[in-house]
Design brief:
The complex is a heterodimer of chains A (about 260) and B (about 230).
Chain A: E1 7-16, E2 19-25, E3 28-29, E4 34-38, H1 45-52, E5 62-70, E6 73-74, H2 82-88, E7 89-92, H3 103-113, H4 120-130, H5 134-137, H6 150-163, E8 168-172, H7 180-193, E9 198-202, H8 206-212, E10 215-221, E11 227-234, H9 235-240, H10 245-251
Parallel strand pairs in A: 4-9, 4-10, 7-8, 8-9
Antiparallel strand pairs in A: 1-2, 1-3, 1-5, 5-6, 10-11
Chain B: H1 4-37, H2 40-71, H3 75-108, H4 119-140, H5 143-148, H6 153-173, H7 178-210, H8 219-227
The chains are: A alpha/beta (about 260), B mainly alpha (about 230).
């Protein structure tokens, strides 16, 4: 069945020169669900996440083997434009990184570059509403994005990402620099966003993965220090009765 | 070991569960012994001690709630804490059965026993022995032992059936004995329930260890099947 999965990898490996950082990842990501990637530091979570929208292209010596399929198309195929990949698969980073521009321009800029021809005011409002930020900023759209709090800046970055209407949103520790209330607000927002988008989130916060995700991928390094997905299942199963002893040790805090 | 504090707090809870279990065992055996000897004062003591059992259960429940709130247990830890919540409730209810038996002895007042008690103390012996071993299996998370104990419930059910028929026969022969027979029937019923609840504890132990629920069997069904031949 076509498009059954939002994105699918087959034996995806990520190498830096002769060193393999992530090995043989084969996962099928469900559409309009939140998938969390968890695992101890250095297991390749962020490396894997960045490979999903070809951000690792910027890293010298990095190359990828295996397949990464978006709607049946290999994103690492020869004829694929990585810029187009990143339009379809957006990313939100650990530290909020708004542009040094107005709140309005933070959203309008990317859309304009991507050839958006519709009514810009509407797009800005709609994006800010989707990111649950509109009510807080509607009276100061021309003010600098830097005037916002960290939590608001992160939601602005999410608004900026959804303004270009991606299919998948990648989030790399999106709440680790935020206070607990802002963190919960981002998690609530994710639940709203998954109605329209597929979300993949890397998090060190196991409680966050447990609270906010539908599926969880557990990563761990092997004897050669290559990271891999050792268990992939529904979140409720991973946190109540995981199959792999290493997952059990990690989620109960005995390891990692 | 990374979670040393958490581990030691879990150990403390387990110790408390064992203590609660021994209080319940003591109450069950004591209630039947008091009935057998028609010792009213001993029964009154058991009724009073039930309050201690209830208190202990709530103290453990509170400890569990604090651990769940502060330690965010996952996977095996979560199954253990959630199941322990269930197990202490089973134990408290078993304590209530002992209290019920003590209450019957007090209500009987000066009335003599309808018949000497032989099978009823036997039921109490088997039930408390099952309970004792079920709690050891819980502590050790011994799935094999937990699976083997509920089988012994058959013997308790058989004794209950036997007592039931015997009492019915006495009632038919002498309808004036109805009230006294009924008292003993209640006692036997309470003891039959003790063994059923031991089965529940064993099921929880298997769940803690394996993560899968399996209902071992319902002896209630067995009993009623026997009555409707």
């Amino acid at each position: 069945m076509e498009n059954k999965y939002a994105i699918e990898s087959n034996n995806l490996s990520i190498h830096y020169g002769s060193y393999t950082a992530v090995k043989d990842v084969s996962v099928k990501i469900q559409p309009q669900k939140i998938t969390a990637i968890i695992g101890p530091s250095g297991c390749g979570k962020s490396t894997l996440l960045r490979a999903l929208n070809r951000m690792n292209d910027f890293v010298p010596g990095c190359h990828v083997t295996g397949e990464l399929l978006l709607q049946g198309q290999n994103l690492y195929g020869n004829q694929i434009d990585p810029v187009e990949v990143r339009r379809k698969i957006g990313m939100v980073f650990q530290k909020p990184n708004p542009f040094p521009k107005s709140i309005y321009e933070n959203i309008a800029w990317g859309a304009r570059i991507n050839g958006f021809k519709g009514k810009m005011d509407e797009l800005v409002e709609q994006s800010l509403r989707s990111a649950a930020l509109w009510d807080e900023v509607k009276d100061k759209l021309q003010e600098s994005a830097y005037a916002l709090s960290g939590g608001q800046q992160q939601r602005l970055c999410i608004a900026r990402t959804i303004a270009i209407q991606p299919e998948i949103i990648l989030m790399d520790e999106p709440a680790s620099a935020l206070d607990p209330i802002s963190t919960l607000r981002i998690e609530e927002l994710m639940q709203e966003l998954k109605k329209n988008y597929t979300i993949i989130i890397v998090t060190h916060n196991m409680q966050q993965a447990a609270r906010a995700s539908d599926f969880t991928a557990m990563m761990m390094i092997d004897d050669n220090r290559a990271g891999g997905v050792i268990e992939f299942d529904e979140t409720k199963k991973i946190f109540t009765r995981p199959s792999d002893k290493r997952t059990e040790d990690y989620v109960t805090g005995r390891f990692g | 070991m990374i979670r040393k504090t958490f581990e030691s707090e879990i150990q403390q809870v387990k110790d408390e569960v064992i203590l609660l279990g021994s209080m319940v065992e003591h109450a069950i055996l004591g209630s039947v012994e008091a009935l057998k000897k028609r010792d009213i004062a001993a029964s009154e003591k058991i009724m009073a001690e039930d309050k201690e059992i209830n208190k202990k259960r709530f103290a453990i429940e509170n400890q569990l709630m604090i651990l769940i709130a502060t330690q965010q247990p996952m996977a095996h830890d979560l199954r253990l804490l959630a199941s322990t919540m269930e197990i202490i409730s089973e134990l408290e209810r078993m304590g209530d059965y002992a209290k019920g038996i003590a209450n019957i002895n007090i209500r009987m007042g000066e009335e003599a026993l309808l018949k000497p008690l032989i099978d009823i103390p036997r039921m109490a012996q088997i039930g408390t022995s099952m309970l004792h071993r079920a709690l050891s299996a819980f502590i050790n998370e011994d799935v094999e032992v937990a699976k083997s104990i509920p089988v012994e419930d058959d013997e308790v059910d058989a004794l209950y059936n036997q007592i039931y028929r015997e009492l019915m026969l006495i009632i038919i022969q002498d309808p004036k004995s109805i009230e006294r027979a009924n008292w003993l029937l209640w006692v036997a019923h309470n003891l039959e329930r003790v063994a059923d609840r031991v089965t529940n504890i064993c099921e929880r132990t298997i769940f803690i260890a394996t993560g899968s629920f399996s209902e071992i069997k319902s002896s209630d069904d067995e009993f009623w099947k026997g009555q409707h031949r």
